[in-house]
């Protein structure tokens, strides 16, 4: 044991150094514990989750950036987009007519999707899943829009419409998103999966319209 | 020149010992900083194993499952390409599904299927753009066979019968075989914004497929919806 | 002798603390500029209806910063009869009104002024923007220049001559039309050629 032969260090170092070392170890341990707890808990998912504003058909669902009111839902295996092109799907086209009223300043609800009960997300595109916002809507002037999205027939029952401003889902963190239960059942899915009658997808228009 | 070289040499040889230790610690600090920042990950893309192409069998390329069925020369695709005197259309028919739980957009799909070394493809190179002749050429567009409309989004849980389309310069010969490359991607966290994305495109499947000419082809199956 | 107290031992650290705090805040505040200051016109010049005001700001294009000076007068806000720069009649949905914002402007004819934004605000601060194309209206793309003599554009694209059209007059008037819900009174007009600068004119 070599340590025994070494001369005793001065008392000051004997008292000072281990205390400091212990403090450093404790500090690192505290930080590591905090990091481990943060990793174990769903802190990130919880703190950045968007605020879901929920409602059903006909409800005016209010969000930070305006309100959304679903006026009607239809479905078929075929749609006719605003340019007259007919699209045919192997699943079901769900066509949602809804009204958007901006709050505060002109804004565009650019993210529109259907979310099924399994958590699958079906977003709009330009051609195959037509949705046009008509550009930013002036606050207080209702904008009537339509979105048609193709989904497998087993996604129809219980599907919800999700609407918010930012197209990138990463940017939904801590923002309001509107989630509307479309009240769809398996009967709707079965009927639409066999329907060959094209559903027309309307162009965007301003004003309250005939529905409300 | 000689003098400056001599000075450098003298500097290198005659550097006092302390400078060496100092340099050593500085290098150590840099290495430590790089390690802490997550560095030293290989920048080189790992070489993926390229599987042989199996016609009629599903290939998992990451975001999509692609089944390649047949390839033919099309004089015209109604509503898609009016194949004129300058170009003809090579159409690869197959089926596509999205593997994940969210919509994948069509740009990634057309980038995932490429033709390698077919003369006259691409038919034209836009001014200001250059193409590397050794580089596989991704499909120009993808169309849904059921209605002839462009597939700009692949929804999860649906199977699409599609045509991947390339334009070929009509002055080039019609190939009897074409080498097809399927490009796969990996779902991983982006180092830029830490979101999960399909990244690192790499060839995962490659092989030759027979190309049928329009004259040799039996009557077009009634897949077009009129 | 008593050892020096805690305050005395740490006096230099205490002096440095506010400086370090300020430096840390400044270092982490780069997003304030990108996501707040440059998001909307924030650096506003105030003006009253009926008076000429000189507004100087800067735009930028391929050549770098393009400073400009323009004189502006808000002549009034009135119900609109036609879209700006179009002869068609207005066809408005129920519950929507159209207001024309009459502005006089003066600037040297070689100053690019086409890329401007016009917003009207009501008394509560809600903003309604000039839109050249929407489902309910179609009008001139720029609310600030005569549609038939727009003057030069910013030099944004290589190979496109930024100055082709007819010469813009030294002084001109425009009447851009903004759609608002019925019953809303315009309180302020905000003109901007790019944030953060803007010209805020009271309409009362």
UniProtKB/TrEMBL annotation, chain A:
Keywords recorded for this protein, A-Z: Signal
Keyword Signal appears in the UniProt entry: yes
Matches recorded under InterPro entries: Immunoprotect_excell_Ig-like
Residue ranges, annotated region (Disordered): 189-212
Name recorded for this polypeptide: DUF4352 domain-containing protein
Organism: Jiangella aurantiaca
UniProtKB/TrEMBL annotation, chain C:
UniProt source species: Jiangella aurantiaca
Name the UniProt record assigns to this protein: DUF4352 domain-containing protein
Lineage per the UniProt record: Bacteria, Bacillati, Actinomycetota, Actinomycetes, Jiangellales
Source taxon at top rank: Bacteria
């Amino acid at each position: 044991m070599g340590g025994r032969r070494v001369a005793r260090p001065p008392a000051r170092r004997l008292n000072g150094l281990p205390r400091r070392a212990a403090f450093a170890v404790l500090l690192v341990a505290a930080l590591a514990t905090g990091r481990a707890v943060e990793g174990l808990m769903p802190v990130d998912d919880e703190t950045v989750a968007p605020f879901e504003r929920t409602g059903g058909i006909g409800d005016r669902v209010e969000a930070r950036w305006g309100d959304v009111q679903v006026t009607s839902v239809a479905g078929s295996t075929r749609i006719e987009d605003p340019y007259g092109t007919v699209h045919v799907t192997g699943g079901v086209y769900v066509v949602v007519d809804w009204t958007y009223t901006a709050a505060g300043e002109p804004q565009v609800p650019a993210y529109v999707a259907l979310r099924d009960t399994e958590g699958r997300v079906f977003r709009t595109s330009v051609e195959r899943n037509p949705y046009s916002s008509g550009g930013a809507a002036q606050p207080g002037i209702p904008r009537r829009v339509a979105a048609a999205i193709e989904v497998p027939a087993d996604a129809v029952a219980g599907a919800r419409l999700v609407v918010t401003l930012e197209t990138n889902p990463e940017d939904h963190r801590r923002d309001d998103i509107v989630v509307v239960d479309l009240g769809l059942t398996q009967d709707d899915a079965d009927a639409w999966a066999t329907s060959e009658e094209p559903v027309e997808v309307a162009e965007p228009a301003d004003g309250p319209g005939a529905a409300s | 020149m000689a003098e400056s070289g001599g000075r450098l040499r003298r500097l290198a040889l005659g550097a006092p010992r302390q400078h060496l230790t100092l340099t050593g610690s500085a290098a150590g600090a840099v290495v430590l900083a790089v390690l802490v920042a997550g560095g030293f990950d290989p920048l080189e893309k790992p070489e993926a194993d390229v599987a042989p192409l199996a016609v009629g069998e599903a290939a998992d390329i990451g975001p999509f499952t692609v089944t390649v069925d047949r390839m033919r020369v099309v004089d015209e695709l109604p509503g898609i390409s009016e194949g004129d005197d300058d170009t003809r259309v090579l159409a690869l028919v197959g089926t596509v599904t999205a593997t994940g739980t969210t919509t994948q957009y069509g740009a990634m799909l057309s980038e995932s299927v490429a033709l390698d070394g077919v003369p006259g493809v691409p038919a034209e190179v836009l001014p200001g753009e250059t193409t590397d002749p050794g580089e596989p050429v991704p499909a120009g567009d993808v169309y849904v066979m059921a209605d002839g409309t462009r597939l700009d989004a692949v929804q999860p849980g649906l199977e699409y019968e599609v045509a991947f389309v390339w334009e070929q310069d009509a002055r080039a010969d019609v190939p009897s075989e074409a080498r097809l490359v399927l490009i796969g991607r990996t779902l991983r966290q982006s180092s830029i914004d830490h979101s999960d994305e399909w990244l690192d495109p790499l060839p995962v499947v490659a092989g030759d497929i027979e190309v049928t000419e329009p004259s040799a082809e039996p009557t077009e199956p009634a897949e077009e919806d009129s | 002798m008593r050892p020096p107290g805690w305050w005395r031992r740490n006096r230099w650290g205490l002096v440095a603390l506010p400086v370090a705090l300020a430096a840390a805040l400044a270092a982490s505040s780069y997003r304030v500029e990108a996501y707040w200051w440059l998001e909307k016109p924030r650096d506003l010049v105030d003006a009253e209806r009926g008076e000429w005001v000189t507004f100087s700001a800067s735009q930028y294009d391929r050549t770098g910063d393009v400073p400009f000076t323009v004189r502006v007068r808000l002549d009034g806000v009135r119900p609109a009869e036609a879209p700006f720069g179009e002869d068609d009649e207005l066809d408005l949905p129920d519950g929507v009104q159209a207001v024309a914002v009459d502005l006089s402007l003066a600037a040297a004819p070689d100053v690019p002024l086409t890329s401007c934004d016009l917003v009207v605000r009501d008394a509560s601060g809600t903003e309604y923007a000039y839109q050249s194309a929407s489902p309910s209206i179609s009008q001139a793309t720029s609310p600030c220049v005569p549609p038939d003599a727009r003057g030069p554009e910013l030099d944004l694209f290589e190979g496109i001559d930024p100055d082709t059209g007819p010469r813009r007059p030294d002084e001109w008037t425009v009447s851009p039309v903004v759609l608002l819900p019925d019953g809303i009174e315009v309180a302020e007009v905000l003109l901007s050629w790019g944030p953060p600068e803007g010209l805020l004119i009271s309409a009362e």
